[in-house]
Write the structure tokens for this entry.
Amino acid sequence: MNIHSATFVGSAVRPEQYPPADLPEVAFVGRSNVGKSSLINRLVNRKKLVRTSKTPGCTQLINFFEINKRYRFVDLPGYGYAKVPKTVRRRWRPMVETYLAGRKNLRGIVLLLDARRVPTADDQQLGGWLQEKGLPLIAVMTKIDKLGRNQRQKQLEIIARTLRLARQTIVQFSAVSGEGRDVLWQRLQAMMEG
Ligand code: GTP
Ligand code: MG
């Protein structure tokens, strides 16, 4: 995918703050620190389009980005981190659920899972909820640069089993090496144009 423009459109908490529903949109969800913002930066090959951090809870609002004036990527705040202040944690569910349940131009979701972890109860709950809603879903195993071949296969198995997904549908991705970028772009284009 050739990226000629990638721009930040704005942040939102409530629907009236969203940009108009006039472009196909894909949202990126997952546990805090799983690598959502880094993945978006790698997809568009811009190091600093989206702010990333070692500290979980970096993204706290719904952030909209416009890609090639044609698609919109939505970086959602992460969940599941005990150290994130309570007020922020309480705000997460209504903010994210309202977006996911009500956004008319939302074509699908990318669910990120850390290659070094067993999916948490939160991951399973969200995965199940998305499957129930019938929203098209792409599961991505992130940070695969941290694992060797054998470990990768083992983790792929674990993630597939806990989220009841077919193993071969899970995209293996690294924001560091760029592995998986082309595969993910193909799946995203099919999702947004299909
Ligand atoms: P929140 O905004 O808190 O929900 O986190 P996030 O999911 O947006 O994570 P973010 O992209 O900020 O990345 C979290 C940390 O993981 C940062 O220190 C990144 O550098 C690191 N990271 C992200 N992706 C990768 C990857 O593919 N490989 C490696 N090795 N590190 C990564
Ligand atoms: Mg983030």
